[in-house]
Amino acid sequence: MAEPIFINGRFLTQPMSGVQRYAREIVRALDRRPGAADRYVLLTPTGADDLTLTNIPVRTIPGGRGHVWEQTTLAWTARRGRLLSLCGAGPVLHPRQVIVIHDAAVFRHPEHFRPTYAAFHRNLGRLLARRARLATVSEFSRQELATTLHLPASNIVVAPNSADHLKAVTPDPDIVARLDLTRRPYFVVLGNLAPNKNIPVTIRALERIPNPSVRLVLIGGRPETIFTVPSLQPDPRLVLAGRCSDAEIAALLAQARGLLFPSLYEGFGIPPLEALAQGCPAVVSDIPATHEVFAYAALYFDPTDAAALADHMTQLLTAPDPARREAGFRRADRYAWSRSAEILEDLLLST
Q1: 332 and 23 in contact (C-beta within 8 Å)?
Q2: Are residues 190 and 276 in the same domain?
Q3: 306 and 205 in one domain?
Q4: Contact (CB, 8 A) for 131 and 95
Q5: Is the predicted pLDDT of residue 52 greater than 50, yes or no?
Q6: What whole-number distance in Å separates Cα of residue 230 and Cα of residue 19?
Q7: Contacts of 68 (CB under 8 A, 6+ apart)
Q8: Partners of 283 in the beta sheet?
Q9: Dist. CA 253–CA 277, nearest whole Å
Q10: Across residues 64-77, what is the average pLDDT?
Q11: How far lies 155's CA from each of 239, 240, 262, in Å?
């Protein structure tokens, strides 16, 4: 067997967010690459989720499951091969490593995180930038990381997100009935309820819509250990769906009047792409990353302007736009996990 490429599997012990989604889908795509069984080994802590891979062997390495495992046990186990870390962190002492850092949020908006978390990841990012090959998910993030980590942008490779995972599932329409949405127009907000997600502006927009039957469905968890989570004001039209399966998300998006994405800062933004792939209009913040990723296929608003968001919601309630729906399908088709996995594999093989 040639020198192995180890994959850092710590993400399989973490709650699902966009970063963990990226890691899971990239590993699944690498599993389908030619020669995957002989090239890769996924190293996981005890208690990790099972990705049910077809080709890549999985080795469970005891010795914890957090940053200590990553910096010690993983580093030692992977010392004689290359290492791929997909979630912005990895062992600083590993000499041949590719790290995917998704954005520069801990540098640009440290107020959105617990202080210790932000400080740790800023320092870790600086160390890894000097020792590892870096990749990220958009041209915007590449420029942001180049600036904050004092690197040439050409040193950072772009391997984007995708929404292919929702195209591959059979929607579960029962979720629509369980949430009492069958006969109601509704909008979806998808993602963790973190400060940068700017959820309160969607609630203020909902308050401007007089129709009592309209619902706003919030899908996602509340990561209090990392973020300072905003308090949500009670509203009978607000539906807290919690975490949902991919099949449930696909069904909710397919019947929604629109997905609302009011983020203040993003490196990419998977939820609007998932919406476009399901034929659901996306109303997104007017920020650089969203323009890069969604271009002509989304509706844009100032993320501090609840009235502007309410105007878009009213438009989607009264006048569906089939042409924009088709544009959304075309935009979603530009991104594929298989292409991003190939980009990362080429980077690994040159490391």
Answers
A1: no
A2: yes
A3: yes
A4: yes
A5: yes
A6: 21
A7: none
A8: 260, 299
A9: 9
A10: 93
A11: 44, 42, 31
Token pair belonging to 191:
């993602």
Query: Do 309 and 258 fall within a single domain?
Result: yes
pLDDT band of residue 226 (cuts 50, 70, 90) is very low
Integer CA distances (angstroms), 114 to 119, 193, 199, 211, in order: 9, 14, 18, 38
Which pair of tokens denotes residue 102?
């998704």
Query: Do residues 121 and 97 both lie within one domain?
Result: yes
CATH of residue 39: 3.40.50.2000
Q: How far is the C-alpha of 161 from the C-alpha of 278, rounded, in Å?
A: 16
**φ, ψ at 284 (rounded to 5°):** -125, 160
Rounded to two decimals, what is the model's pTM?
A: 0.93
Are both 127 and 187 inside the same structural domain?
Answer: no
Q: What residue numbers bound the domain in which 135 lies?
A: 5-161+336-349
Closest CA to 194 of 223, 219, 215, 173: 223
Q: Is the dihedral of CA 134, 31, 9, 166 positive or negative?
A: positive
> 231-268 as b/e, with b when 16 or more CB fall inside 10 Å?
eeeeeebbbebeebebbbbbbbbbbbbbbbbbbbbbbb
Residue 83 and residue 118 in contact, taking contact as beta carbons nearer than 8 Å: no
Name the domain count of the chain: 2
Tell me the per-residue pLDDT of 258-301, one tens digit each, with 9 for 90 and over. 999 999 999 999 999 999 999 999 999 999 999 999 999 999 99
Give the long-range contacts of residues 243-246, CB within 8 A, separation 24 or more: 243/16, 243/219, 244/175, 244/219, 245/172, 246/165, 246/166, 246/169
Angle at 50 between CA 48 and CA 56, to 5 degrees: 110
The closest alpha carbon to 337, from 52, 54, 23, belongs to 23
User: Does residue 76 sit in the same domain as residue 154?
Assistant: yes
pLDDT at 229: 42
Residue type, 106: V
96 near 351, Cβ under 8 Å? yes
Tokens 């329409």 sit at which residue? 173
